[in-house]
Amino acid sequence: MISYRSVFFLLILVGITLGVMRLTHVERPQLTPMEAAIKDSLAPIQGVLMGISETVNQSVYSVVALGGLSGENKELREEVSELRGQLLLLEELRQENQRLRELLDYREQHEQNFRSTTASIIGRDPGNWFGIITLNKGERDGILKNMPVVTRAGLIGKVVAVSRNTAQVMLITDPRSGVGAMVQETRVPGVLEGTTSGGGATRLIHVPKDTELNAGQVVITSGVGGTFPKGIPIGRIIDISDEPAGLFKTATVVPFAELQRLEEVLIITTVLNPDILPPTEGG
């Protein structure tokens, strides 16, 4: 059974609820004094909470953004590395094309004197760096023993052994090498041979003692012996001395061709005019 007391309190509660609903209606012109006081007291706390919320949001965004930037930077570094490698390869190809073009120009200049084929150095004798090199041309390319080998700068040696796909060349700096040579200015003959010093120099021997030799004179092939055409530039005299027996002079000759830096060469396969190949003084 419901008591009057309970009904009374229920009516009071309903009245209070209706009053609060009226006071807090969204279209009312202003807040109640209690609402204003509560909002004013909570405002600082709300500001702090809002700042913390924005800081957290910014931190989360920064972490996500940094993660994305890290991945992007890695991709950019890889791309830069790849582009750098491509540039180096292009530069290497450019230099190779330039060297080959110079060889082809030299071959065209002397097409009335000899026929030749280009070849690349694929090996060196580690125990005789200035003695033997290996080329990537052989019997299948028409290469034969004793064929002369040159660059546009001058003579470098001759073929001494041939396989189907390769050829070994003895450089003029090898002590076993011998080239019929002469001084271009005076036409004085001699024999050019390598030295045992391993420094890349050669020497002109068996030059008569009464012959005038001077530093700076150019040495070319003489054509004697039949292996090398006449007039191929060899090198330049830098020093003169008397041989121990006192009957001849010896001249130290530095080759025009940079034998320690060879990469591509010309193998002379056919000599058309063995006696009129014009000297070019290392050019």
TrEMBL record:
The keyword Glycoprotein does not apply. The keyword Coiled coil applies. One of its GO terms (cellular component) is plasma membrane. GO terms for biological process: regulation of cell shape. It comes from the Bacteria. Keywords: Cell shape, Coiled coil. Residues 121-268 form the Rod shape-determining protein MreC beta-barrel core domain. It holds the Pfam family MreC. Residues 66-113 form a coiled coil. NCBIfam families: mreC. Involved in formation and maintenance of cell shape. Belongs to the MreC family. This is Cell shape-determining protein MreC. It comes from Desulforamulus aquiferis. The lineage of its organism: Bacteria, Bacillati, Bacillota, Clostridia, Eubacteriales. The gene is mreC.
